[in-house]
C-alpha cells in the first residue's frame, strides 16, 4: 500500500509545481505586454496646409493664392461682351462679343478693343471693375470710339454701360478711382475737320444706370 501511495503523491506534487509555473509565467507575460503596449494615438483631423500657413503667417500655397486671385484685369476684356439687348452698342440689336480683342461682322464691320484701359471700383461695391474703349470701323476712314464699362464678377467682365466719344477721337489713358473714370483723349475744337485733332481733353465720368456720364472736363492744346 505504501509503495502505491508514493508514486501518486509524487505525481500530485509535479502537477502542482507545473500549474504554479504556468500561472506565474502567464501573469508575467500579461504584465510585460500591458507595460510594453504604447497608448493609442487620438485620431486627428486632416490638416490643410494653406490654412496652417495662413495661421502661422507663412506664405500660402498656390491653391490658396488662386482662390483669391479673381481681380478683373485689362487682359480679361479681350473676350468681353460689348452692349446688350437693352443697352445697344451703336444701335445694334444684339451685343457683340470680342474674340481675342476683335469682332467681325458679316458686312465687313469690325469692332476692336483699344489699348487704353483702367481698372478700379467704379460702383462702390468693393470689387474691381474695368473701363476700356472699342473702335468701330465699317470699311471707310472713320473709327468711332466708344467707352465701355464692365462690372467685375469673379474675375470676369460683365457689360455695364457705354459712352460715345466720336469719330477718330482716340483715348490715350484711362484710370478708375473713387468711383470715377478719368479719360484722357484727343478731340477737335469747333470748325476743325475730322482729320484735325487739336485738343487733349481730360474727362471725368461716373456711372448713371446704363450710361457713363461725363461730369466734368478740362482741355489743353494738342499738336501731333
UniProtKB/TrEMBL annotation:
Signal peptide boundaries: 1-21
Keyword annotations from UniProtKB, A to Z: Signal
Taxonomy, superkingdom: Bacteria
Stretch list, region Disordered: 23-68
Name recorded for this polypeptide: Lipoprotein
Highest classification ranks of the organism: Bacteria, Bacillati, Actinomycetota, Actinomycetes, Micromonosporales
Amino acid at each position: 500500500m505504501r509503495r502505491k501511495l508514493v508514486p501518486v503523491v509524487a505525481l500530485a506534487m509535479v502537477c502542482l509545481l507545473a500549474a504554479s509555473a504556468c500561472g506565474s509565467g502567464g501573469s508575467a507575460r500579461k504584465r510585460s505586454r500591458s507595460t510594453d503596449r504604447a497608448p493609442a494615438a487620438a485620431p486627428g483631423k486632416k490638416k490643410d496646409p494653406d490654412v496652417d500657413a495662413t495661421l502661422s503667417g507663412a506664405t500660402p500655397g498656390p491653391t490658396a493664392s488662386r482662390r483669391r486671385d479673381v481681380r478683373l484685369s485689362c487682359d480679361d476684356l479681350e473676350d468681353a461682351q460689348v452692349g446688350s439687348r437693352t443697352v445697344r452698342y451703336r444701335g445694334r440689336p444684339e451685343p457683340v462679343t470680342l474674340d481675342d480683342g476683335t469682332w467681325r461682322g458679316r458686312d465687313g464691320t469690325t469692332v476692336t478693343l483699344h489699348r487704353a484701359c483702367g481698372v478700379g471700383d467704379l460702383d462702390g461695391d468693393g470689387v474691381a471693375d474695368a473701363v476700356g474703349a472699342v473702335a468701330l470701323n465699317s470699311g471707310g476712314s472713320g473709327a468711332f470710339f466708344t467707352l465701355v464699362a464692365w462690372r467685375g464678377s469673379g474675375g470676369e467682365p460683365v457689360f455695364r454701360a457705354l459712352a460715345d466719344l466720336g469719330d477718330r477721337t482716340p483715348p490715350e489713358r484711362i484710370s478708375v478711382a473713387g468711383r470715377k473714370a478719368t479719360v484722357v483723349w484727343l478731340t477737335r475744337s469747333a470748325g476743325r475737320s475730322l482729320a484735325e485733332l487739336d485738343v487733349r481733353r481730360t474727362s471725368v465720368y461716373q456711372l448713371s444706370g446704363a450710361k457713363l456720364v461725363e461730369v466734368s472736363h478740362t482741355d489743353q492744346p494738342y499738336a501731333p
